[in-house]
Amino acid sequence: MTAEPLPLTGERTVPGVPEENYWFRRHEAAYLALARHCAGATVLEAGCGEGYGADLLAGVAREVIALDYDRLTAEHVRRAYPRVHTVRGNLATLPLADATVDVVANLQVIEHLWDQHGFLVECRRVLRPGGRLLVTTPNRITFSPGRDTPLNPFHTRELSPSELDELLRGAGFEVEALHGLRHGPGIDATIIERQVEVVLGDGGWPDDLLDEVKAVTAEDFVITADDVDGSLDLVAVAVKR
């Protein structure tokens, strides 16, 4: 059975939508960079969304458990990505036994959660000793600059690099790496604000901007330890000791 595409809600990105390609590729770049930590591992993707990331990780992992709370989403992932094991459950109480997975992947999800510390404690519980937690999240400093509340209505709390580091350590993790994702030289620095103007306006997509957005690839983004405060997204690897 062919899976019907999930609707765009603003809460998640999905593949195959030309107007959404910039955001999809930006997220895909992080999955590709972090996939090496999943080689041969049992992986839980906590908050799998559309499922494309879980399927990407399944290309290198021994097993991928794709977890999401939304019923429609879980059903879509089960149909669209048969090589992952789909589970519907709440991130506040992960439906796994203690010390049962090697990696927990949580990409572009933690900013949606009310109890971020409690979630990270749950991640630590289900990880085996030496297991890794992979986290990406928008950098509050650049995503919602100068604001006390996030610009995105689906976000509860966005984090700066120091806040993410403190949160991970406070949940009992050792932070192995904290890097930042940013545009490479092939992306115009104004591409985000030009997209926002289109979305907030009523004039439709200019052909030149849509062509520019459609041309973006995962390789157009770089992940580096340089100037993490100025990055677009934070990319962290933490270890359970």
Keywords:
241 residues; alpha/beta; 8-stranded mixed sheet; 31% helix
Any overview of this molecule?
The protein has 241 residues and is an alpha/beta fold. Helix content is 31%, strand content 24%. The protein is built from eight helices and eight strands, in the order H-E-H-E-H-E-E-H-E-H-H-E-H-H-E-E. It has helices spanning 21-34, 52-58, 71-80, 116-126, 140-143, 161-170, 191-200, 207-214, and strands spanning 42-46, 63-68, 85-88, 101-107, 127-138, 173-183, 221-224, 233-240. Strands 3-2-1-4-5-8-6-7 form an eight-stranded mixed beta sheet. Helix 3 links the parallel strand 2 (63-68) and strand 3 (85-88). The longest helix has 14 residues, at 21-34. The N and C termini lie far apart (43 Å).
Q: Approximately how much beta-strand content do the residues carry? A: 15-25%
Number of helices: 8
With strands numbered from the N-terminus, the spatial order across the biggest sheet is 3-2-1-4-5-8-6-7
Q: How many β-strand runs?
A: 8
**Helix/strand-derived class?**
alpha/beta
Overall form = globular
Nearest-angstrom radius of gyration?
A: 17 Å
Order of helical and strand elements = HEHEHEEHEHHEHHEE
Largest sheet: 8 strands, mixed
The proportion of residues forming helix, as a percent range, comes to 25-40%
Uncertain segments are: none
Mean pLDDT metric: 94
Task: Determine the N-to-C terminus distance.
Answer: 43 Å
